[in-house]
Design a protein that fits this description.
Strand order of the largest sheet: 2-4-5-7-6
Strand content: 15-25%
Oligomer: single chain
Number of strands: 7
Distance between the termini: 9 Å
Number of helices: 7
Order of helices and strands: HHHEHEEHEEHHEE
Structural class: alpha+beta
């Protein structure tokens, strides 16, 4: 029960906190009479929350998780214009596998705010997904600002040693904790980065033989 409570608490704490700004953008676009963008942004927001809520389920298919991430990227792309481009390449063969929901969006959020927005040049964000060694693997790569060795080590300490309060990395920490809590410490996030070249976050989740909704033990 303690483990279940911790898991559910972590799950509840992941919330897209850009809602107010997105609605503000919709109002601004409406005042500018840019109806096409209003429709595009509103549809993306609806899809984002429809997938995120998922009728209370803790797990969704890879296809649904990727659709949620794409809706988030579409919203941010409309809001920030030429700050970044995004590219999604996920193997169709893993589309029906189930994963914890809301594991891509927090990582992509970091790629935008701590990568793309901190460089003067236009950045690229790549989301890849494939099967490897009995795992579902996602890679979120950005060509943004990157991190020096000290900052990267602090981030790793925050994730693996539960010192997240020392860095603005709550979303990343949450994703790792939820995966590790359900599947074990050998799964979760790996991060590499280089100043001026960007960051790569790799997510590993074991493929379950029973692909029904996963619940904490």
């Amino acid at each position: 029960q303690l483990r279940k409570g911790e898991y559910e608490g972590l799950q509840m704490q992941i919330n897209p906190h850009f809602l107010y700004n997105t609605l503000d953008s919709i109002i601004w676009l409406a005042l500018e009479k840019d109806n096409d963008q209003v429709i595009r942004l509103t549809k993306a927001l609806i899809q984002l929350y429809r997938t995120g809520l998922s009728r209370g389920k803790d797990t969704i298919t890879v296809d649904e998780e990727v659709k949620h991430a794409q809706s988030y990227l579409e919203i941010q792309k409309i809001r920030y214009g030429d700050t970044f481009d995004y590219h999604i390449d996920v193997d169709n063969r893993i589309g029906s596998f189930r994963v914890l929901k809301l594991i891509l969006q927090p990582i992509i959020e970091n790629a935008i705010y701590h990568g793309a927005k901190r460089t003067r040049e236009k950045s690229d964000i790549f989301v890849k997904g494939y099967e490897q060694g009995g795992c579902i693997v996602f890679e979120i790569c950005d060509t943004g600002a990157g991190m020096d060795k000290q900052t990267l080590q602090r981030l790793r300490n925050a994730i693996y040693d539960n010192e997240g309060e020392k860095l603005p990395a709550y979303g990343v920490l949450n994703v790792h904790q939820r995966i590790a809590l359900l599947f074990g410490q050998q799964y979760g996030l790996e991060i590499t980065s280089e100043p001026g070249k960007g960051t790569i976050v790799t997510i590993r989740i074991p493929i379950q033989s029973n692909q029904t909704e996963q619940k904490p033990a």
